[in-house]
Fold these 4 entries.
Entry 1:
Amino acid sequence: MGREDACLPDMELALPGQLCYNRPVWVPAVIDNAEQDDREASDLAYISRVLAGDRDAFAFLLRKYKMYVLKIVSRHVPYEDAEEVAHDVFIRAYESLAKFAGSGGFRHWMAAIATRTCYDYWRRAYRSKEVAMSSLGDAHREWIERAASDPSGGSIDDIGREVEAREVLEWALARLSPEDRMVLELVYLEGLSVREVADLLGWSTANVKIRSFRSRRKLHKLLEDAGRR
């Protein structure tokens, strides 16, 4: 299925106001294995129909997973671009559907495509210099000073609970590479394991482990340098 065939049905992806850029929302859930098996069997049936030439069958998968994809995308790209990036995710999924092997389930496969599409978004933005390099104001520097003087050390895991903290974080992330940015968000902000991040991005665990250590060190140095100015 080529891009010329990727005119997907029902591509209205309305982004709810509560889905906020770069703010993970964890919803604890008990997984019913029987229900999950039924869901995956249903997905496979629709995938088979799409591969057999029934393009309209993809509308079922789109409706089923559009909010799931939007939640992933909205944690990693600016709010105003989330809908367009989510659209790209489904285009990629549609074009790559024949490569879906079934292992891990379709939901996990979509999560990997969504994560890699976000990574590619930042790679393009950094190459074209579309990343806004905002400056820090007095309120931001005061927040950095408070975080630095915090006896607990001002953990990056807790960053983002105040307006100033979110803005400082975005300022710092814009000065890191796309690779460092994605690893920081996935490992430290979303709390995923090294293995999970490697799986989502298609990297080796060793690469993720090294980059997570280095990216965290770079972020702290950026904040320390900003606090001295």
Entry 2:
Amino acid sequence: MSDTILFFGGWAPIGRILVVGTAMYLALVVLLRVSGSRTLASMNAFDFIVTVAMGSAFGGALNAKGVALAEAVCAFVLLVGLQYGVAWLQMRSPFISGVVTNPPTLLYFRGAFLPAAMQRERVTEAAVRAAVRKGNLGSMAEIEAIVLESSGDISVIKAVGDASAFGAEIKQQPHRPKSERDAGDP
């Protein structure tokens, strides 16, 4: 007969889950507080991987009898340390930053969707318009630009006279075919 337990396997496994789960939760809260707000900020691809790995380590240690609390906390420290190290490298190396984080992408600018950028980023016009509605804007005429951020969020920027919020990466007006340009555009 197998060791499969369907409904209740005794109080010892439940007690282990309560003790180990509480201790791991507290350890994770302490580690996240020590590592700073960057760990909990909007996620890039590396942050997503670390988050999934932490969830997997938490779940594995919580449910696997063979994983000690010290091993689970060590896994958390390793993952938070890697995340901190990559963030530190990103701040000091444009190359590492470019490898880990996608630059923001302009999807709409001064009255025109940018189909090549939208296709490259796999964003539909419907998704862009949904972001506009979510921003409580009723007309595309109210919008200067729409940007797909590094985090995957879509930012809608109302018409402005000063485009300094665009930053160096997207400050330049995108090249559009002459047929799409307004008569007054430079």
Entry 3:
Amino acid sequence: MNPRSSDEDPVWIRYQQEFAQHYHEVFYASSPVIRAVQEAGHRMVEKPFAATTHCERILEVGAGAGEHIPHVRHTFGEYLVTDLNETILEQARQAHGHKPGLVFQVQDCRRLTLPDQSVDRVISIYNLEHIPEPFRALKEWTRVLKPGGILSIAIPTEGGIAWNLGRHLTTRRTFMKKGFDWDYIIARDHVNACSQLLAFIRHYFSDRKESWFPLGVPSHHLNLICAITIRVP
């Protein structure tokens, strides 16, 4: 593409159009190794909850095709399954729409239409790395949480040595074969490194617990996933 062109890059347009088609296939169905890494974050954010715990109203932002729903350990009254991508949200509806308590809504996680202090838990799995000015999203998620509510976040260790190597050996090869310049796509789509996101989270939230996969030591270079459980005041 000529960078002087005022038109959007056709590779990026194609990726946006085909993202929903490829997401579950590549990240959850293509390889047991990739699936294990992806599911680690889902499991980690659920560890603080027991089957006897009840959260009346849950909001999941950027829920994608609903991959997190089967991992939820506690009971709930209403579970708002939201995503900005209507196509991938419809996949979630088709897979999980029969389950009681689930409500599917198109929502921009940076500008939620929910009232202040209206949910008991907010779940974000692999979203913050994509969001420009992520501190604004964190403030928005905190706005809708009730006092004492829980914010559950999982992020990949974007920018870390282990993550970069793993991507080079797995998903990069897959998407390059599909005709995508994956380095370019990642540069546009993953705008925040793990270390930057943790700096925001650690600045805003003192009542938090971090966990790391697979080694457990607090290093974004040695691990692949970081999960954070936050209780808001």
Entry 4:
Amino acid sequence: MGAKSRAVALVAIFASLYAVTSLVTAYLPTGPFFIQFRPAIAIPMVAAIISSPLIAGLSAAIGTFTASIVRYGTPIYTIFSGTPANFLGFYVMGYSYRVLRRRNVHWMKALIISSLIGLVVGSIIIALGLWFLAVTLLASGLEKFASLEFAITASFLLVLAPAPIALILVIGILKVLRDQGKITL
């Protein structure tokens, strides 16, 4: 299999896994925050470590786009928030992980730092996207997001809340893959 075919296959696999696992928790109520509680971020986090920043970003963007259409019945929310947030957040995570590893930072420390960087980037994009929708299109259900403070608080709370769960899952998955000789960390 050529490099391009392999990349397309990986994007399809990771995007599918992310979409399906995102929908498992998509219907959990998050109170006034609207944003999904999503421990499924473990999937693109693994992609960011074992593949490339581009594969991680594309698979996260496609996966969240798919899950959001199934969940909300419209792409409007995800076009302005989730899709670009997932693409850039997981791209940045994969890139920063590689930079840290080249500087000989231990893989687990690099994973935690790069995850936080990527999730902060994603949170900011989600907040700005939902704020934009709330103030320009007056999208129904997003009224509270017209307050930039609420948008940022909600985004950070719900994007970072599943991070510990996701990190535990990712560390476990990476250790299994390493122990099976599939990857080096």
